[in-house]
Amino acid sequence: MITAEQKPIQEIIQYIAPYGRILLVGCNECVTVCAAGGRKEVGLLASALHLNSLKQGKTIDIKEITLERQCDPEYVEELAPYIDGADAVVSMACGCGVQSVAARYKTSPVFPAVNTRFMGASLGQGVWAERCKGCGDCVLGITGGICPVARCSKHLLNGPCGGTSNGQCEIGPETDCAWRLIWERLKELGMEDRYEDLMNAKDWRPGGAAGPGKIIREDLAQ
Amino acid sequence: MNTESRLEKILASGELAVTSECGPPRGARPEKVKEKSALLKDHVDGINVTDNQTAMVRMSSFAAAVIIKQMGLDPIMQMVARDRNRLAMQSDIIGAYAFGINTMLCLSGDHAKFGDHPMAQGVFDIDSVQMINMVRRMRDEETFQGGAKIDGAPKMFIGAAANPFADPFELRVMRLAKKIKAGVDFIQTQCIFNLDKFEEWMKGVTDRGLDEKVHILAGITPMKSVGMARYMKNKVPGMDIPDSVIKRLEGVSKEQQPEEGIKMAVESIERIKEIKGVHGFHIMAIEWEEKVPQIVEQAGLYPRPKV
Amino acid sequence: MENFEPEIVAFCCHYCAYTAADMAGSKRISYPSNVKIIRVPCTGKVDAIHLMKALEKGADGVYVAGCLAGDCHFKNGNLRAQARVDRVKKILTELGWEPERVAMVNMSAGMGEKFAETAREFTETIKKLGPSPGKLTGNESKAAS
Question: What are the DSSP E strand ranges found in chain B?
């Protein structure tokens, strides 16, 4: 999933300071799962903004809506009936959602309430870790199912570097050395000999070096 | 012989090679480079010029290498994958070679987290193994990494680092094999303090006959004090400092610790000389360059052969 | 302000604090009438939004009273409640409100005296803090609405 974390409330307060009527929009997908911008978080943020306006002696009108998927135009359309009643939109979706809303409703300012972090997997309740960089040319098939691009701090395709210490990355003991993990996994799979295959310099184009990525499926696109 | 590198010639002659290093200054002070290099000039076959070592901004290794070259000495230009993409690397390699710099070292580079710009984005477009391969192809096939022909190919003698002490240990010989496959000519190892482990690694190297395909220079660092030993043990990633090293330094007075450290370095060289497959020494006297001549002389590595 | 009588909401677990409140009553141990009790089946049922809404609606302080550590009828509801209280404290801090306006307390069903003492202490704390920041700006009517 795409992971995110709520921005500091003061930053959000700054964004919306000039506005009285706010449309606060959550998303039912990734940000719900990582507890950053789902219905629950929309409610809590709305309440926090209310408390703030009470202290400021102002009134604020907040309409809370959580869309099924904020990065999809057909769901973003559901905001149409409310958009004219709002001076500003605050989105709790990832950057894709924020931009989808901004693209559809051109006259309303749209502010992000979360910082989008990374593509990650859940390691347990309340813990998410980065697992994919979206490089566009997946190497997991030859690295034992562990990604060196996302999980090696230096993105080494021929690791490990000399900084590994007690099996952990040189950046700190809380980060596993990806190449230690790859090696252990290759051994488990009886594929140790694969380790000495040289991995060629990566073509970074599919992952964004060639410009913003775009996928067009001829059979689906209209 | 692939290059004009003095280091290559020494190694080809079968003599033990000696290299040392010079960390460029953190400012536009060319005299600092000259001072450090002058201390080393008669006692080494090549001077490594570090590239923003420990991710701290310093005078570029390219510029400092040019200064050393213009003194009539032999710089070994280090290059890290952290700070340059493949375009910048190749243009710097051509530029350096145009100034007569013919020996270089390909490294991944310490993570920016440790330096004075921890907020910087690391480049890591290619890794050190891929860099070795790129430089070899520039030399032997006269082509850029992207495939185009080079008009005036840089003929670099190609070095890389190896850390026999980082884990997983069992990978350390295999990773050397990978660098050899990529085209590396010589290796400078991480500072050796755990000699037993180094011997074990070298045995793995010679068992596979890798010592016949690459020249290994053993890394030697003299300890200035017990404080430095403790710091390196606890704070420097990938460093293996046995307790015996710390105990021995603790056993002498603070004033005598530098001398004891040099004695230990010389003893290490004497022992490592006997290990099959070691073709030289890389002496890293950190901010203590003035002691390198003494170590080289006491270890019986002076005078340096003329080639 | 010297006559300030805070409004306090206490979310009390059915299995412990609520029973303790009953016991305080039957033993005629008095506690401040400022505390309004809301009975919940387990403090694990109390979410951060409930604490926030109570403050939004004009409570000067809110606390959650759950079972002693290890004694939750539903295993770890009291621990979850503690985490949510901590989260609300963080939000209040970010907003510049006093985090002491929310609290978590633990007790068993038999601790009638402890229930009364907690109610007295928390009421004192809130009295010292003064009215909710939301009430200080002439917003009282809105806050209460």
Answer: 17-22, 46-49, 75-80, 103-107, 157-162, 186-191, 215-220, 278-283
